Amino acid sequence: MKINVEKVVIPVAGWGTRSLPATKNLPKEMLPVYRKPAVQYVVEEAMLAGLTDVVFVTSRSKKVLLDHFDRNLSLELVLKRAGKEELLEQVKAVAEMVNIISVRQKEQLGLGHAVLCAREVVKKEPFAVLVGDDLVFSQEPAIKQLIEVAKTEQMPVIGVMEVPLEKVSNYGIIGGEEIAPGLFRVKKLHEKPAPEHAPSRLAVVGRYVLTPDIFDYLEQIEPDLRGEYQLTDALKFLARENRLLALKISGIRFDIGDWVDYLTANIYFGLQDQKLSRELKQSLKNLLEDQGGSC
Ligand code: G1P
User: Is residue 229 within 8 Å of residue 109, measured between CB atoms?
Assistant: First the structure.
């Protein structure tokens, strides 16, 4: 099958338990990072990679997320009357970025199950998956890096990044043979292994380019001990057949479900804003001095 990707699946149905109590009623993907909700960065990454159809896999509490990508005519009127043209353009632009399609995941049964929920919309085309709470920033959008490789090699590709050994148990970890610098033929995949069982420190970040045969594998897998269907287990079928590549993504990644990453992401953007950075640096400096300079 010739790999040409137009659709992107963004699963956003999770509970966001790591971010409670902030996420009691607010979807974790809507937590603000600097001036935008986290999920907007993910959609922007898809758009920059030329992916025009975004399939959100949602749950019942995610209306506010879908509304973010829709017009808000009352707000637009208020901004227009107040002469706030720049803000008006920004607010309107979000609704015009991509085509939004939404499918419901009726029970939160894991990432694999969420991806399977998109089957009827994706149909028989290759597609991308971007995890809604993983932010990756780089010169070339992370998913574009994967699409390029998938097109050249005509194979599904997943994004990986090196993590410290003590963090391997938070991720899917691959083991493989490096066939070109930063490109691996995946031989092993372990979902959240103990450090002593990890085949490497290369962690799967939430970026995947897949072919529709993954849906057949997703239908065959069994749930894990927590009752969740893992995408990793379906990917193992491809790895066994030597049909899965992993690309080391270049860029900086923030897992917004992790408080340190979340706070760092906000500071990262604040420091890049020329209007804010001087004051922000001073404020951080004062804060650290007040804490006795310990960091
Ligand atoms: C999922 C995947 C895992 C991957 C991670 C990236 O885990 O199952 O393999 O490393 O996304 O964010 P989750 O974060 O849903 O537990």
Answer: yes
Ligand 1 neighbourhood includes 204 CB (under 6 angstroms): yes
Architecture of the structural domain at 7-284? Alpha-Beta Complex (3.90)
* Mean pLDDT computed over 30-40: 95
The residue to mutate among 130, 133, 171, having the most atoms of ligand 1 within 8 angstroms of its beta carbon, is 171
DSSP bridge partners of 290:
none
Q: Are 43 and 54 in contact (CB under 8 A)?
A: yes
Domain ranges of the chain: 7-284
Give SS3 for 224: coil
The answer, yes or no, to whether any atom of ligand 1 lies below 6 A from the CB of 46, is: no
pTM: 0.93
Q: Which of 160, 137, 135 is nearest to 29 (CA)?
A: 135
Q: Which of 246, 93, 94 is nearest to 156 (CA)?
A: 246
Does the pLDDT at position 82 exceed 70? yes
